[in-house]
Predict the 3D structure of the following.
Amino acid sequence: MLNKSQITFDKNHIWHPYTSLEDPLPVYEVESAEGVYISLATGQKLVDGMSSWWCAIHGYNHPKLNEAVSHQLSKMSHIMFGGITHEPAVLLCQKLVEITPAPLDKVFLCDSGSIAIEVAIKMAFQYWHSKGDSKKIRLMTVSKGYHGDSFGAMSVCDPQNGMHHIFNPVLPKHEFIAEPSTPFGSELNATDLKHLEEAFEKHHEEIAAFIIEPIVQGAGGMRMYAADYLKKVKELCVSYNILLIFDEIATGFGRTGTLFAANHANVSPDIMCLGKSLTGGMMTQAATLCTENVAKVVCEGESGVLMHGPTFMANPLACAVSLASIELLLSYDWAKKVSAIEGDLNSHLCPLKQHPRVKEVRVLGAIGVVECTQDVQVAEIQKFFVKESVWIRPFRNLIYLMPPFIVDSNELNILCQAIVKSLDIDAHFKP
C-alpha cells in the first residue's frame, strides 16, 4: 500500500482526470485487477461497471492478452514506424480492413482516440485542399457530442453544454445542428429531417466533413438515437459532396450489439475512428481508417502525404495486443453475450423510470444509462458505490454502466442494485 507521504503527494501534486488539485475528489488505490473485479489496496474487491472508461471489454489480466504482450516484448517493445514496418502492424491493419465496413481499406495507426479524431480532421481538410476547394474549411456536427480532449477534437464537441466550453474563444468555429431526437428503433422524425436538410442546404459549400458518433453519443450525454438518422446523414453527404466521419471510439467492437455502431444503419463513412477497446484496455492505441478515394486525393495534393506522424505510431506491443483482443472477441458469440447483458440491464434499470429522481432510462447493448433529474455529488456517490463493492463513475446527472463483456448476471445485479439504492440518498445529488 501507499504510505501516508505518498498519498499526500498524490493529493497535492498529481492531476487526475477532471479533478481539482485544490478540492480533489477521493481516489482509491488499486492493488490489482482480475476479470471483472478491481482489488483495492485495502483488500476490498469491486465489481467493475466502467470497463476502465469503456475499453476493458474482456475484463482485466486476461491470459490471451497478457500472452500477446509477453510474446511481443521478447522481440521488441517499440520501433519507429517511419521507413520501417513490422508483422504486428501489418496483421492488425489487415484485420481492421477485414472487419470494418467496406470500402474502408486504408489504416492510420495512432496514439489515442483524441488523436484519431485529429487525424480524421486533417484527412478531411487535406482532401479538399488537394482538390483545390478553398471554401471547404469547416466541419458540421451535432450538439451534445463528444470527440476528445485535444484542440481539433474539442472544436467539434458541444460548444455550449460540453465540458470544453471555456475554450470556445480559442477553438476553430464549426457548424452545429440540433442533436438527434428520434429514439433508437424509431423512424426518423420530421424535426430531425428538417434540421438536417436545412443545415446541409445552407452550409454545404463550406463544409469539409460531417462528424458524428454513430447511434450513441458518449460523454456528451449518453444519448441513443435512430439508425435512420445515420442513413439520412449519409444520403445528404453524398448529395452535397461532403465527407462523412464516424467516431466509433466508444461504440466500436461490439458495445452497442453490432460489431460497429454503423452496422445498425448498414452505412459506411469515408473516415472512421477507432480506439478505447481496440487493445482490450491493455494500453493506448487508436486507428483512423479511410477509403481509397480519400487516401488517393490526399496523397495527390501539395504535400503528397498525410501530415501526421506520431512517435509511438504502430507501437508493436499495442499492435500485437490489439490483434489479440480482436481475435479474442471474434472467437466466441460476443453478440449473444452482449444481448444477454442488454436483457439484464433492461430488467434491472427500466423499472427505475418510475423513480421520482429519474428523468429517463436508456439501454442499448452493453450500455445502461440512468439520467437523473439532478446532477450527482460525485465524491459522495463514489464513496457509497465503493461501500457497496462496485466501481461506478457517474458524471453530471448520469449514472451509467458499461461493464466488461465477461460480466455475469449476478455481477450485473450487484451493479444495478447499487444504482437503485443510490437514488434514495439525498446527499448523492446536488440541490
Remarks:
- The CA atoms of residues 159 and 165 lie 5 Å apart.
- The longest helix spans residues 113-130.
